[in-house]
Amino acid sequence: MTRRLQVVLPSFNEEIALSRLFPQFEELAARLKDQLSLLVVDDGSSDDTARVAEEWEGKVPVGLVRFPRNRGYGAALETGVTESARELACSDLIATMDADDTHPPRYLANMVKALDEEGLEVVIASRYAPGAREEGVSWDRRLLSRGASFFYQWAFHLPHVRDYSCGYRLFKAGLIQDALRGGIGGLGLDTGFHATGQLLLRLREQTSRIGEVPFELHYERKPTPSKMRKLQTVLGTLKYLREVRRTVAKLPK
C-alpha cells in the first residue's frame, strides 16, 4: 500500500503565495513515491485564500479547513496537524510548512529520504545546518530567530538539531496520534507563533529520533507583510521555555 504524505499549510491572506506554491507541489509529486496531498487551514482570511484552494484543479488533492475568524497561527497549525493525523495511518507522514512561499516544497524529497535512510521519525528543514542559506531576511529577524535557537537548544538539548523554531518539518503521523491519545482534547498549542516550539516538544515526548536537513529560506519571495508580532512572540517563547526544561528532563534520551 502506498504511503501517504499530507502537507499542512496554515494560511492567513495567502492567495498569491498559494497560487505560486501549488504548481511546485505538482512538480514535487512526480519525484515522490508517496501519495502527496495538501491541507490548507484558512485562518479567517479576508482575501481569496479559500477560493484558491477550492478551485485548484491539479493532480495533487487540496483539502480545506476554514475558520470564520482569525484564531492565530498556533490554532491553524494544531487543527491541520490533528485533522491529518486522524485521517492517516500511523506509518503515513505529515509535513508542516509556511504557506507564504518562503519554504520551497522541493526539499520535502530530501526530508523523506533522510527519514527513511537514517531511521528518523522527525526531520526538520534547518536554516542553520551546514549548506543552508537565508535570503531576504532582515537583520532583526535573523537576530530574533538565532536568539530563539540558542534558548531552545538550552531547553531541549537535542544533539543533532540546530533549528527549533522553523515550521518546515516532516514527521510520522503515529507520533501525533500517540500524543493525542495521551493528551486532553488536543495538542495544547498556544495561538502564537511559538506554537512551532510547542509542537516540537509534543513530538519529542514521543521520540528522540529527530534530525535535520539543510534548506534555503527565501524570505524575499514572501508577497505579503509578516503577520508575526515580534515582541509578543519573544515573550511567549521565553515564558514557554521556562516550563520546557522540567518536561524534557523527564523524557527518555
Helix-strand layout with pairing:
Blueprint: E1 4-11, H1 15-29, E2 35-43, H2 49-55, E3 62-67, H3 73-87, E4 93-96, H4 107-117, E5 122-126, E6 133-135, H5 139-156, E7 169-172, H6 173-182, H7 195-204, E8 210-214, E9 216-218, H8 230-249
Parallel strand pairs: 1-2, 1-4, 2-3, 5-8, 6-9
Antiparallel strand pairs: 4-7, 5-7
Helix pairs in contact: 1-2, 3-6, 5-8, 7-8
Structure in words:
It contains 8 helices and 9 strands. Helix 1 packs parallel to helix 2 and helix 5 packs parallel to helix 8. The chain has a single domain, classed as Spore Coat Polysaccharide Biosynthesis Protein SpsA, Chain A, CATH 3.90.550. The chain is an alpha/beta fold and 253 residues long. Strand 1, helix 1 and strand 2 form a beta-alpha-beta unit. The strands form 2 sheets. A 7-stranded mixed β-sheet has the order 3-2-1-4-7-5-8, with helices on both faces. Strands 6-9 form a two-stranded parallel sheet. Helices cover 42% and strands 19% of the residues.
